[in-house]
Amino acid sequence: MAKSNIEWTEMTWNPTTGCTKISDGCLFCYAEPLSLRLKSMGLPKYQNGFRLTLHPEELKRPYTWKKSRMVFVNSMSDLFHPEVPDEFIKAVFKVMNETPQHNYQILTKRSERLLQIAGELTWAENIWMGVTVENEKVTPRIADLLKTPAKTKFLSCEPLIGPVISLDKYISYIDWVIVGGESGAGARKMEKSWVDNILKICSENGTPFFFKQWGRKNSNVDNNDPTIESKNLYHAKGGCQLDGKVYREMPVIM
Length: 254
Ligand code: SF4
Fold this sequence. Notes:
Blueprint: E1 2-3, E2 11-13, E3 16-17, H1 31-40, E4 53-54, E5 70-73, H2 86-98, E6 103-108, H3 111-118, E7 127-132, H4 140-146, E8 152-157, H5 167-170, E9 176-180, H6 192-205, E10 209-213, E11 241-242, E12 245-246
Helix pairs in contact: 3-4
Bound molecules: iron/sulfur cluster.
Iron/sulfur cluster binds at residues 19, 21-22, 26, 29, 31, 77-78, 109.
């Protein structure tokens, strides 16, 4: 487990590493170059680079964490990748069920596989399940997510590369929405109107909204946004204010 710079979590836990690209949102996947860099640095866990690799030894770790944590599962992979055996997914869920002191955030782009296996998994309240929704084209992922028994369901609209027009159809069943723009070399621009639309739908439904980052400074319409500066408490890539406000809402944990 490693401390995370991702604003909406505390730690990452990667019982699998590596992946393959499946949708437009994967174009500048940060996990790929990072995996290759860690391989070149000689880290044994990344000796296969970005090739899907299981790490059964990681399954013991959560039992050793004393303090309660918010844990992003598989920041460097996708748990529902076709090369992850059903038995391994079940083993990861067993660990999460047996460590209720932690909250686990799982995010996938492979909602069809998620849906296929969801009925065979045990969904304790500490397991939050999310799908990435980078544009309208992939909104069927939301419909798949809604058919799972996960108690807390969330969307990560990052990198937001197009409008998500049909969100209002699903929003009353969603517990949390994260929005973020793409960052790094070649990053695609996020239009403010796309973000405004998601915020409006969330606000009307009372759904917690977390605006992570603009990603690129030139996506941010406010050049004076103080969170662009690295010294600012809420600093994020490209800044993270929306009409002068920072949105870092989280789901209500019962
Ligand atoms: S699904 Fe996620 S980890 Fe896999 S290639 Fe796409 S962005 Fe990267």
